[in-house]
Specification:
By secondary structure, the chain is mainly beta. The protein has one helix and 21 strands. The longest helix is centred in the N-terminal third of the chain and has 26 residues.
Length: about 280
C-alpha cells in the first residue's frame, strides 16, 4: 500500500482508539467512591443504584446520589432523565413528602442527585416505597420498590398544622457537623398542597431562639433569624453554639405579612416553643 493512503488510515485508527479509551476512562472512574450504597433496584435491563454518605435513609433531609446501569453492557448511562415519587403507606391512606427534581451531579458523568425529606416512618423502617421514572434515548421506563427509612435520633424535621390551616414540613439541613462557634443554619420549608405535592414556601421568616434545657435553659449570643434565599430555595441564618451538649432550637414561623402562624416566645413561664428542632454534639 502506498504511504499516502497508509497515513490517513493510521490517523483514523488512532482517533478511534483515543475516543474509545476516553469513554473507557470515564466509565472506569468510581464517581461514588466517597459514598455508601443504600439500595439497588433492578428493572429488566437496568439497575438503579442509590447512595448517600451513611448508606441508609433517615427521617429528615436526605441528599441522595443515583447511578443508572445498563446490565447488558455493564456500563453506566450518562444521558438519562429521571424523576421519583416517594410514598408512605398508612393503614387508611398514603402520602408523599417534600422532594426535589433529579439533576446531573456537577462535574460527574454517571451520577444524578436530588433530595428527599422524610417526615415520618415506622419503628422498623418500613412503610415507604419509591417509584422512579426515567427516560433513555426516548424510551420511558418505570420501577417501584420498597425502601427502608429509619428514625433519626433527634427531631430534625417537623410536620405541623399552622394557624392558617395549612400543613407545613420544616427540616434541618445545616449544620451537619456543628461546632462551638457561630454556625450557618439552613432549613427547608414546604407546605402540603395535597397528598403528593409539597411546594417550597418562600419569603417567610423563621425566628430562632436556641436553648440548653439541661443547663438552666440558657440561650446564646449572635444568633440571627432565618430568611429565604431564592438561589436554592432554602432558609439561612446564624446559630450560635457556646458549648457541647443537647440544644433545643426553638422556632417561630412568620408568614409574608409577618404574622406568627406557629411557635411561641421563650419566657420564664414558657420554656419551649411548640415548633422546634433538636441538635446534639
Amino acid at each position: 500500500m502506498k504511504l499516502k493512503y497508509l497515513i490517513p488510515l493510521i490517523t483514523i485508527a488512532f482517533l478511534f482508539s483515543c475516543s474509545t479509551d476516553d469513554n473507557d476512562d470515564i466509565q472506569s472512574i468510581n464517581e461514588v467512591a466517597d459514598l455508601l450504597l443504600i439500595k439497588e433496584i433492578v428493572n429488566g435491563d437496568q439497575t438503579i443504584e442509590l447512595f448517600n454518605q451513611k448508606g441508609m435513609l433517615e427521617t429528615g433531609y436526605n441528599q441522595i446520589s443515583m447511578r443508572l446501569k445498563d446490565n447488558t453492557s455493564n456500563t453506566y448511562i450518562e444521558d438519562a432523565t429521571l424523576s421519583w415519587m416517594p410514598i408512605m403507606q398508612m393503614p387508611t391512606m398514603q402520602h408523599s413528602c417534600p422532594n426535589s427534581a433529579i439533576t446531573k451531579a456537577i462535574g460527574k458523568n454517571t451520577v444524578y442527585e436530588g433530595f428527599i425529606i422524610y417526615q415520618m416512618t415506622n419503628l422498623d423502617g418500613s412503610g415507604w416505597s419509591i417509584t422512579i421514572d426515567y427516560t433513555i434515548e426516548g424510551i420511558n421506563y418505570t420501577v417501584t420498590d420498597t425502601i427502608e427509612v429509619f428514625q433519626y435520633e433527634n427531631q430534625n424535621v417537623s410536620s405541623f398544622m399552622a394557624s392558617d390551616d395549612t400543613r407545613y414540613v420544616l427540616a434541618l439541613i445545616e449544620p451537619k457537623n456543628p461546632s462551638i462557634a457561630v454556625n450557618e443554619m439552613k432549613i427547608g420549608l414546604f407546605k402540603m398542597e395535597n397528598m403528593t405535592t409539597f411546594p417550597v414556601v418562600d419569603n417567610y421568616t423563621i425566628e430562632l431562639d436556641p436553648r440548653m434545657p439541661g443547663m438552666g435553659n440558657h440561650s446564646s449570643p449572635n444568633n440571627s433569624d432565618l430568611t429565604f434565599n431564592s438561589s436554592d430555595n432554602f432558609y439561612y441564618g446564624d446559630l450560635s453554639l457556646t458549648m457541647t451538649g443537647y440544644w433545643k432550637l426553638n422556632l417561630k414561623l412568620l408568614n409574608s405579612n409577618d404574622d406568627v402562624i406557629k411557635g411561641e416566645d421563650i419566657t420564664d413561664e414558657n420554656e419551649a416553643s411548640s415548633l422546634y428542632l433538636e441538635l446534639e454534639f
